[in-house]
Amino acid sequence: MLLGKHFRRYYAKYALYFLVGVFVLIAVDWIQLDIPKLVGGIIDTLKSTSPNITQIEQSIIRIGVLALFITIGRFLWRYTIFGASRRIEYELRNVMFSHATKLSQSFYSQEKVGGLMTYFINDLEAIRMSFGPGILMLVDGLMLGGFALYRMFNLNSRLTLYAVIPMVFMTIALVFIRKTISKRFKDRQDSFERLSDFTQENFSGITVIKAFVREIKEAILFNDRNMDLYDKNIRFMKYIIIVNILIGIALNIVILVIIVLGSLSVINATSSDLTAGQLTEYLSYFFTLIWPTMALSQFINIQSQARASATRLEKFLNHPLDVKNSEDAYDVSDLKGTLKVDHLTFKYPDGDQPILLDVSFEIHRGEMVGILGRTGSGKSSLVDLFLRTYNLEPGMIYLDGHDIMKLSVKSVRQSMGYVPQDNFLFSDTITNNIGFALESPTKDDVIEPAKLSDVYDNIMEFKDQFETILGERGVTVSGGQKQRISIARALAKDPEILILDDSVSAVDTKTEEAIIKNLHRIRKGRTTIFIAHRISTVKKMDKIILLDQGKVVAIGNHATLMKTSPLYQDMVKRQTLENLVEGGANHEGLQG
């Protein structure tokens, strides 16, 4: 049985189901053993010189009634025991998913999606088998086996002793090989996890694989991992099959001994020997005993697999929640959008050097602010901290005067709309993607955000328009369309603070200007933050915060920074030259 802290509570929660199921199962086990006795009695009656037909008819009727009770009982214990195991699987999967959504970015930077999916599929199935078939096999093996042995012993104690001794040794041997089974199952699970990781990455990166003509090479690598899983599966199944074969051989030898000795006993026909009907009854009990023996061996296999899976799941479920509410956290529902950063220094949990150094600035409510800097200057890290993706020291970021570390995570994130740099889209309709923050989005809810992000016309060109199903991660639309749909998704939320992390880099300057113009118009009185590396994105902002190597090197609007910041001037010159070069190349191409 699984007694880890994440599993034992289900025994108490579903105790009534398990108790009823076990009680009915034991009753069925006892009742079904009356049938061999009745059959044996019928045989002995038929062998007598003057068989009692009435007694035979009564025995047949009793067999029919017992069969009816057994059928009803088997339905009840299946419904209760297997039903409880399915409910546990359902609840545990929800607990796992809820825990997964609360884990921090640092966890997902170390874990792969394929490995996580193994927890939700193979490992969870092994846990369900422990709660369902595992309990059945344990109870059925012990009780049905005990009842059968009891009746066998009453019929012929000497013959029962011959039958039991090899089965006892066989059970002891199964206990000793349990650890080997568990280890081989864990090896198989680990190999499946590696194959899942590799497959998921290849499907996600199929465009890159094709672009670099790596199809054959990746197929060879896949074959290697697939073969490893095949070998692990074969090793595991060979071990199980060998064990089952040895059990089968042992059982067949015992059956042969019983038939020989029992037949001799019937032939001798003394008062202490078995009659033909009793030998039939005895053999029926022994054949009934085969299932408990097999059930106990399967129980050991199931438990070995479940223990290996439980160890993996407990490691996952015990992983601490790095980003969570502090003990004195509180909710604020009407945050307005004033941000203050006060001497902020931050490094990632797995990093050695600070990403942000002594950063200080303030963003007032209603301002449209650009955060500009070269690659690696700390722009996206700053966004992660605004969204409470990572922890930081108290007193470094304030939202409307509240220390962001004292506010509940929910309050902080509900006040913000975020357009990420990677523009992740779900495999769903465009309506549901844009209306992701809404309870039940309709087409009317998403039309205006789509127009404001300048993607409406593109959507209307699709065959199914807003009901178009996007491929995984939005692969069916272009990079610029993905960015604009992501912007529309954030606008549909209508947040107090809108953060766009390099979110117009894939669109042309005309579209960029249209989007920014729309944002200026509809975001009056609300805070908007643009993370960018292009000057054209931020030059019309109320304020520009210039970062370099994790430090704030200048703050001001475009005109001010052109006068006071050498770094900003250099960036403007470089990007102007780049635009001229690109324009010249296009001009030459047109002339050609």
Summarize the entry for a quick read.
The protein is of the alpha/beta class.
Strand and helix map with partners:
Elements: H1 9-13, H2 15-32, H3 34-47, H4 53-102, H5 105-110, H6 113-155, H7 157-176, H8 178-204, H9 206-211, H10 215-268, H11 276-317, E1 339-346, E2 356-363, E3 368-373, H12 379-386, E4 397-399, E5 402-403, H13 409-414, E6 416-419, H14 430-434, H15 443-452, H16 456-461, H17 479-493, E7 497-501, H18 509-522, E8 527-532, H19 535-538, E9 543-548, E10 551-556, H20 558-564, H21 566-591
Parallel strand pairs: 3-8, 3-9, 6-7, 7-8
Antiparallel strand pairs: 1-2, 1-4, 4-5, 9-10
Radius of gyration: 36 Å
Please bin the fraction of helical residues.
55-70%
Biggest sheet record: 6 strands, mixed
Helix- and strand-based class? alpha/beta
Superfamily (CATH H level) name of the largest domain: ABC transporter type 1, transmembrane domain
CATH topology of the largest domain: ABC transporter transmembrane region fold
Strand order of the largest sheet: 6-7-8-3-9-10
Kindly provide the name of the CATH class of the largest domain: Mainly Alpha
Give the low-confidence spans: 584-592
Number of helices: 21
Strand content: 5-15%
Average pLDDT confidence is: 82
